[in-house]
C-alpha cells in the first residue's frame, strides 16, 4: 500500500487518531500538499460517499471519516495558499427559524467541505433576515436550509420569498433538506433542489454551483 493510499484508508476507516501523523509523514517525505489533499484525504472520503449512499456505512462512521479528514487538513492546510485549494464554490447553510436540530446539517457540512466546497455555517434557528443578510455578505453559489420539524418547514418558503424579493435569486440556488421534507415540498416552495441525505446534498451542489 502506498503512503497516500494508507492515508486514504485511514480517513475511510475514520481513524482520526492517526490521520494527522500519517499526513505529517507524507509532508516530511516531500509529497506535495495538494497531492496529499487530493490523493489521500479526499480520496478517503470518496470511498465513504458511495458506501454511505448504498447503506453500507452509517452516520457515526461517516462523521468519524469526516473528522479524520479534517485532522489531516489541519496539518496540511498551513502549507498551502487558500487560493491553491480547489474550491467548488461557496455554500451558505443553516437550520431554519425555530428549529434547533443540527446533527443532519452538520453532517451535510462535513460532506460538502470534504467534497471541496467552502461552507459558511449560520448555525441553528436562523431567521429569514439572517439568511438574506448572509447571502449579501458571502455571495454564495448555493444556500442550503435544513428543517427537522413540520412546524418549521414553512420558514423555508419565507426565506426563499425574502431572497427573491431582495433580488438575490439570479445567481443563487436554494436547496433544502431534512427528514420531514420531500421533493414535492421543495418544488412547492420554489427551491432549486431537495436532497434526502448528505451525499445527495453534495451531488446537488455540484450540479447547481456552476
Ligand atoms: Co427532535 N424531533 N425535537 N430533538 N429529534 C424529531 C425531529 C422528531 C421526528 C422526533 C419524534 O417525535 N419522533 C420530532 C419532530 C416531529 C415533527 O415535527 N413531525 C421532534 C420533536 C417533536 C422535537 C421537539 C419539539 C421535542 C420537544 O421539545 N417537545 C424539540 C424541538 C426543538 C427545536 O428544534 N425547537 C426537539 C429537540 C430535539 C433535541 C434537542 C433533543 C435533539 C436535537 C439535537 C441536535 O440536533 N443538536 C433532537 C433529536 C436528536 C431528534 C431525532 C431523535 C434525531 C434527529 C437527527 O439528528 N437525526 C428526531 C427523530 C428522528 O429523526 N428519528 C427528532 C440524524 C440526522 C443525521 O438525520 O437530521 O434527518 P437528519 O439529517 C439527514 C437528512 O435529513 C438530510 O441529510 C442528513 C444526513 O443524511 N438533511 C439534509 C438534513 N438537513 C439537510 C439539509 C440539506 C440536505 C440534506 O440541504 C441544505
What does this structure look like?
The protein has 2 domains: 3-84, Methyltransferase, Methionine Synthase (B12-binding Domains), Chain A, domain 1, CATH 1.10.1240; 90-208, Rossmann fold, CATH 3.40.50. Helix content is 55%, strand content 11%. The protein contains 9 helices and 5 strands. The protein has helices spanning 3-12, 16-28, 33-53, 59-76, 103-114, 128-138, 154-165, 183-189, 198-208; strands at residues 90-95, 118-121, 142-146, 173-177, 193-195. It has a 5-stranded parallel sheet with strand order 2-1-3-4-5, sandwiched between helices. Helix 5 (103-114) links the parallel strand 1 (90-95) and strand 2 (118-121). Residues 59, 93, 98-105, 107-108, 144-146, 148-150, 175-180, 195, 197-198, 201 line the site of CO-5-methoxybenzimidazolylcobamide. CO-5-methoxybenzimidazolylcobamide binds next to helix 5, strand 3, strand 4 and helix 9.
Amino acid at each position: 500500500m502506498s503512503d497516500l493510499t494508507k492515508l486514504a484508508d485511514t480517513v475511510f476507516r475514520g481513524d482520526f487518531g492517526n490521520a494527522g501523523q500519517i499526513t505529517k509523514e507524507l509532508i516530511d517525505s516531500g509529497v506535495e500538499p495538494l497531492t496529499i489533499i487530493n490523493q489521500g484525504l479526499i480520496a478517503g472520503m470518496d470511498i465513504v460517499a458511495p458506501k454511505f449512499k448504498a447503506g453500507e456505512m452509517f452516520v457515526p462512521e461517516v462523521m468519524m471519516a469526516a473528522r479524520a479528514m479534517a485532522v489531516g487538513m489541519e496539518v496540511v492546510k498551513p502549507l498551502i495558499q487558500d487560493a491553491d485549494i480547489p474550491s467548488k464554490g461557496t455554500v451558505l447553510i443553516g437550520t431554519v427559524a425555530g428549529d434547533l436540530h443540527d446533527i443532519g446539517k452538520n453532517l451535510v457540512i462535513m460532506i460538502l467541505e470534504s467534497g471541496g466546497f467552502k461552507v459558511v455555517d449560520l448555525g441553528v434557528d436562523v431567521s429569514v433576515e439572517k439568511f438574506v443578510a448572509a447571502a449579501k455578505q458571502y455571495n454564495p453559489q448555493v444556500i442550503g436550509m435544513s428543517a427537522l420539524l413540520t412546524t418549521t418547514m414553512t420558514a423555508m418558503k419565507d426565506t426563499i420569498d425574502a431572497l427573491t424579493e431582495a433580488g438575490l435569486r439570479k445567481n443563487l440556488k436554494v436547496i433544502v433538506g431534512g427528514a420531514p421534507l420531500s421533493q414535492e415540498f421543495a418544488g412547492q416552495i420554489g427551491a432549486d433542489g431537495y436532497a434526502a441525505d448528505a451525499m445527495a446534498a453534495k451531488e446537488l451542489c455540484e450540479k447547481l454551483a456552476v
